[in-house]
Amino acid sequence: MGKKYVYSFKEGSKEMKSLLGGKGSNLAEMTNIGLPVPPGFTITTEACNRFYDEGQKLWPELLEEIYLNLAEVEKTLGKRFSDQSNPLLVSVRSGAVFSMPGMMDTILNLGLNDDAVKGLISSTGNERFAYDSYRRFIQMFSDIAMGIPKRKFDEVMEKMKEDKGVHLDTELEAEDLKELVRRFKDVYYEDMGTEFPQDPMKQLQLAIEAVFSSWNNPRAVIYRKLHDIPGNLGTAVNVQSMVYGNMGDTSGTGVAFTRNPANGENKIYGEFLMNAQGEDVVAGIRTPKSISELEEVMPEVFEEFRKVTNILESHYRDMQDIEFTIEKGKLFMLQTRTGKRTTQAAINIAVDLVNEGKISKDEAILRIEPNQLNQLLHPAFDTKKLAESEVLAKGLPASPGAASGKIYFHAKDVVEAKGRGEKAILVRQETSPEDIEGMIMAEGILTARGGMTSHAAVVARGMGKCCVAGCSEVRVDELQKTMKSGSITLKEGDYISLDGSIGTVYLGDIPKVEPELSGHFGEFMSWVDEVRRLKVRTNADTPKDSAQAVKFGAEGIGLCRTEHMFFDEARIPAVRRMIVSNSETQRKKALEELLPLQRKDFYEIYKIMEERPVTIRLLDPPLHEFLPSNAKDIEELAKSMGIAAEDLKDTVESLEEVNPMLGHRGCRLAVTYPEIYRMQTRAIIEAALDYKVNDGVEIVPEIMIPLIGDADELTYVKKEVIAEIEDVFRERSDSIEYMIGTMIEVPRAAITADDIAKEAEFFSFGTNDLTQMGFGFSRDDSGKFLNAYVDKGIFAKSPFEVLDQRGIGKMMEIAVDLGRKTRPDIKLGICGEHGGEPSSVEFCHRIGLDYVSCSPYRVPIARLAAAQAVVKERMNLQLDK
Ligand code: ADP
Ligand code: MG
Ligand code: MG
User: Fold this and answer.
1) Which of 163, 466, 473, 803 could in theory staple to 500 by disulfide, Cβ–Cβ 3.0 to 4.6 A?
2) Is residue 13 predicted with pLDDT exceeding 90?
């Protein structure tokens, strides 16, 4: 027997996703746990790949397997294709492994022809329904499988309604629909030059081929590229017997989430339409009703529905996004999948599921993608400014967040605006998969049509992007590029603000403030903190950043850069005088001016950090960065210092370097001008003594020396630093504890870390420089070529973004080993950009660092990533057993 390419729903399971696609594997799973699913079968993703090998044709053995499975469905239901008394109709549904816009849409009612329509009448006694189904089928099949523009059918439909003087499809009578079928067939004939295919097997074959072909249509290809989905996965095709939501007032169709996808509330959330079929709900033809009304209209069905959602949630142990149809009061399930949700909802749901005893805390921790937390930490509108703002319109709160920007009406205009550095809001009648790039680039999205499950709403929630959907008060004219609400007309480039949490659209650009972390967030993060071993510190140079980081849970400062303090407008003259001095006495004088300022900086930061550890790095960048470069500034500075502009210009030039990144910076500055580091050391220690005396808090400042490559360099610099500390202690007749350590950022330091650890009490991996010097990629110039590396697949990500674990990471591992050999209790951390990148944080956990340090906004992300590292480790241990 050859390979099996077709699986009946009874044969599959949710574990077979890569073979059966997402939709197919879940239809099988629902079938097998006893839920009401109309019978059918799935043609595998492997068949899709073979389809391409066969020159885009279905081959005889596959057709044979399809016949057999179809016969099985016919037998189960007692229906037959083309039967004049009880015909079988099916839907043909694409279903890739990852749900993917751009794939072929579903075709419903396949199997209808001139015989079957009679059969449908005799089996249902409902002529109107039969012709309604037939006309839907001709239109869908022609549009989706044969590429005849849908518009041609819509026009015929519109004319029919006009002739009859009615507004809604549902007002057309059986005779009208029968006539419509005739006219639709004519449209088909005009376009194709052949009659509408009457043989259901032929219809089915064409539909399946169309699904497979759609795998490689341009929209799907672009989407896959954007989301790193490999092109060789293929799509499955599901063939499923029809149930009918359009059989009158006890029938209907709908979509629902088992919990609220916007805020996580444990309440079924969705929309449905009575006497409707398929995508009527999302297409915006009639306004759907909220699911809670189903309880009133058909209480028994609703009760059944509630039961099914409970079964699904317990079975999948997560919130589900489902599609269903009611046929004459009987419920059928047509799809389930794990529902997309906002971060806020994701956290609330995970915590609720733990409290309901459905999942463990460890599982809850793994369910939140660390980078997703970004969504929560983002600013909201300033309430005072908001109150003064004019409300333009109200729509649906489709995806939370606050966004302001200039309005653009086409995705490509948003992309261009973004390229110009503008903030843009995409405003559309409705979005579709072609708009995806514009949606990614936009600050927020506003649509005039569509509900909570429309394309815009679903995609925006998935991306964590602010969206107001279905805002019917605004009239959008995409051609004229205007939007109107009441008497107000806005044109392209005007500012609006969106609040996606309540669905409000405001005029103008409203300022934003820091967020409140509400709901279950605190509880969730407390579990995270219980689990993780790595400490999380922050990179902060100012009291403000430090305070923000503490609010986000930072446990100390891992990197306080002192150069930012030098750039302050009030100080820069003194800094410049210090640099251009040509005698030690002059330089010391300038440094004396800087000392009280730096001491105050440190004192303020200590106060915010309380007992938490603070690592301060001594001056790192090349001195010429502080000097003026244009003639006018040089002249002014020279004047203020009472020296000749010419002389100053010479000094500036002499400090310029061919390759500053590898030049006169870091500890090298201390070798040439030890007094700079001595001043900074004094400021650090005096501030700590002040803190002890004034506030009674003793901290242990960690003094960090940058850019060490050789142990002897460190020996020299450390001697100077300690000499200064001793001076301070003597002068003050007081002392405190302190630590002196180094950054590991020069490759030579990493591989001689055993020597360096003799002098250093701690290491902090400066992975930005370590990556730069390890690869020899200049950080300042790599933008010009690293994108090409990523585009050509040489690198998955830039090593400046995601730590290169194999190479740069190996140097870190070597340094950890060697450092611990010399000094078993050496303190180890990382302060490069990677300290806030989840996969790099996990790596730091595995190689046994004590802490990671990252920018304030990434602190919660790093906390979660550190906890996930522990959970994954536990799971691997369990797997190994
Ligand atoms: P999508 O992937 O775009 O959601 P689906 O294959 O889920 O497409 O089909 C869309 C809708 O078509 C379903 O939600 C359902 O309402 C309708 N549909 C699909 N198959 C059937 C069927 N066998 N019987 C009745 N309605 C169906
Ligand atoms: Mg769809
Ligand atoms: Mg669906």
Assistant:
1) 466
2) yes
Ligand having the closest approach to the CA of 324: 1
On average, the pLDDT of the chain sits at 92
Quote the CA–CA distance of 501 and 396 in Å, as a whole number: 9
pTM of the predicted structure, to 2 decimals = 0.82
Q: Residue 283: is its pLDDT beyond 70?
A: no
Q: Which of 332, 334, 458 to mutate to test the pocket of ligand 1 (most atoms within 8 A of CB)?
A: 334
Residue 284 banded pLDDT, cuts 50, 70, 90: low
d(CA 850, CA 301): 57
pLDDT in tens, 57-89: 999 999 999 999 999 999 999 999 999 999 999
- Closest protein CA for atom 8 of ligand 1: 106
- Written as one letter, the residue type at 465 is K
Q: Is 869 in the pocket of ligand 1 (CB under 6 A)?
A: no
Give the start-end residues of each E strand in 531-684: 535-539, 557-561, 614-617
Contact yes or no for 441/410 (Cβ under 8 A): no
| Mean pLDDT value across residues 589-613 | 95
Residue 76's Cβ-side half-sphere holds a number of Cα atoms within 13 Å equal to 16
Helices (H), 193-298: 200-214, 218-226, 280-283, 292-297
Please tell me which residue in 48, 467, 667, 831 is annotated as part of the active site: 831
CB count, 10 Å around CB of 570? 7
Question: Tell me: the pLDDT tens digits for 231-249?
Answer: 899 999 999 999 999 888 8
Average pLDDT over residues 596-600: 95
Known catalytic residue: 831?
A: yes
CA pair distance 254, 281, nearest whole angstrom: 6
Tokens of 260: 């609220």
- Cβ of 26 closer than 6 Å to ligand 1, yes or no, is no
Which residues lie below 8 Å from residue 877, measured CB to CB, with a gap of 6+?
none
Say how many CA atoms lie within 13 Å of 343 toward its Cβ. Answer: 21
Name the burial class of residue 632, with classes exposed (0-12), middle (13-18) and buried (19+) by CB atoms within 10 angstroms of its CB.
exposed
Q: Rounded to 10 degrees, what is the CA torsion of 293, 297, 300, 306?
A: -10
269 pairs with which residues across the strands?
Answer: 257
Distance of alpha carbon 743 from the chain centroid: 33
